[in-house]
Design brief:
Elements: H1 42-68, E1 76-82, H2 84-97, E2 102-106, H3 110-118, E3 124-128, E4 134-137, H4 143-149, E5 156-157, E6 161-162, E7 165-167, H5 180-202, H6 208-233, H7 241-266, H8 270-284, H9 307-319, H10 326-354
Parallel strand pairs: 1-2, 1-3, 4-7
Antiparallel strand pairs: 3-4, 5-6
Amino acid sequence: MADTVLITDAHPPSEPPPARHRHRHVPGPQTDAPPARPGLTGPRAVITPVITVLTVGLAFVSVFLAAFHTPQAHRLPVAVVASDHSAALFDVRLQRIAPEAFQVDRYPDAASARHAVEHRQAYAAYLSDGGKPKVVYAGANGPAVSALVTPLAAVPHGEGHKIPVVDILPLAPGDSRGLSVFYASFGLILAGFLFGQMTYQVAPRLSFGQRILSLGLFAVVGGLATSLIACTAFEAIPGSFLGIFGVVTLMAGAVGAATVALIRFFGPIGVPISSIFMLIMGNATSGGVLPPSFLPGWLQPLASVMPAGVAVRAMDGLAYFQHDGLTRGVVILCCWIAACVGTIFLLDRIAATSGVVHVATR
């Protein structure tokens, strides 16, 4: 029987080439997280936080002590309705009580002088025209003004008679110390600063529209909540609720927009810069603790341009002083918002066209 020869291929069948792994890019979820940063190292990591925090803290100590350690009134306007002789005599006696604290302004009649006090054009009025002399003032200006005006009762008149002093515009029962406007504004200014800081920490890559929407939402909700607490819950700020709500909302928007703009422009260093200007300088010169006339000369101008200062005056005007400072405050706050939002928009456009990474995320 013939042997069957099994002929096999000398080469084993080739195995199929291994399949090539094709790497496909799978888009992940969109995120606002900033790129990883290595951070500071070495001596700079030790020294930089110390310098930054101490700068802010010492700025707070310096500015607030400069403003409030020995507050002195500077030429508070006092309306005078009296004869030339009586007016001159009253002025001399004022200077003896508190030199350089008062400035005498002549008015034609008692009605115009009272109008000046009620509209915060004068802090007090001396009325001695055809009747028994008296001094009227607005206690709504705060305890500091009241303490300065009340001693005028000791000014002798005629044969040693004292002049009666009458408060024609007292503080609300829920605001016995006259600090409610300051507390309400300070709280929301602090919130505005924190919003500006958090918006770049939590979501540094938001689009311009989303960031402005977030700013507007913060301002409206913060203004409404603050007004409800101060005006309704505690009845600490009298006056129009809608008016207070509008001013507080604009103030929150101005401070938040300014903080965002500073951080957007300067990057991380914008945080201490905004804290010094918005928080420290703004609140110290707001006039909520003392009227701006009690501030040192180098701080007084800030009260008329900073968001806190114009907002506090507008809220005081709504609450007590016949809308004094309201129009000017609304205009200045709107200018702050427009300027800061415009700056953010311009910086975003420049970054988008040139491919520059947001400085706030570096």
